[in-house]
Amino acid sequence: MGSMNKYFFKDMSVMFGRSMRHIFRSMDTIITVSITPIAIMLLFVYVFGGAIETGTENYIDYLLPGILLMTIGSGIAYVAYRLFTDKERGIFERFHSMPIARSTVLWGHVLTSLISNGISVVVIILVALLMGLRPAAGILEWLGVFGILGIFTLALTWIAVIAGLAAKTPDGAGAFSYPIIFLPFISSAFVPTDTMPSVVRAFAENQPVTPIVEAIRNLLANQPVGNDIWVALAWCMAIIVVAYILAMRIYKKL
């Protein structure tokens, strides 16, 4: 069992290295992922921000958590695309004929997603600081923020794996991310939910993005997070478990 674990991690580090090389060869991926959220952030802060009542002194402080989730939603589309490309080129068959743990091929892509999305998130936070973001968070709160964003990235990445393995075309591989990018618009990411019509409000308050946004917002403001953090983690863990099981089932059929 020990040697099997040793080989699993060794194989996974090789796959992770292979996947990371693709990222560093095309850094434009990270730039592309960051451009749209930065544009939305500029638009909402400098064009709409003055007209939106959020109860916060600085709208960028209110807005940032939703923008970070949109950034991750954009970034995972590339995971699906790269997996689809591997499948179409027969890379999986080549790896399956080698004495390596099968699942390490997927884990290489998943870990790369965590790193590349982490870089994009840091870029967005730096831009937000230039735009006047003034978080009250200490080190522990920042660790909490990055922890939640990491688990959220993991959850969405396993959904991306399903899309990449099941897609029939390159466009189809990335298209699943559009509804995910759109979800923050129907949440508390841009405006408080109590300003919404009752049906929209009911949806906004009972979908995964709202508790994740609220937990991150309160951590950044150094405020009590209440139940939001547990609801956020429960949503993310449930998505990870279901998506992982489905992804593995599809992968084994390839």
From TrEMBL:
GO terms for molecular function: ABC-type transporter activity. InterPro entries: ABC2_TM (IPR013525), ABC2_TM_bact-type (IPR047817), ABC_2_transport (IPR000412), Nod_factor_ABC_transporter (IPR051784). Signal peptide: none annotated. The keyword Plastid does not apply. Keywords: Cell membrane, Membrane, Transmembrane, Transmembrane helix, Transport. It is found in: Cell membrane; Membrane. The keyword Membrane applies. GO terms for cellular component: ATP-binding cassette (ABC) transporter complex. It comes from the Bacteria. The chain crosses the membrane at residues 30-50, 62-84, 105-130, 142-166, 173-191, 229-251. Residues 28-254 form the ABC transmembrane type-2 domain. It is a multi-pass membrane protein. Belongs to the ABC-2 integral membrane protein family. PANTHER family: NODULATION PROTEIN J. This is Transport permease protein. It comes from Mobilisporobacter senegalensis. The lineage of its organism: Bacteria, Bacillati, Bacillota, Clostridia, Lachnospirales.
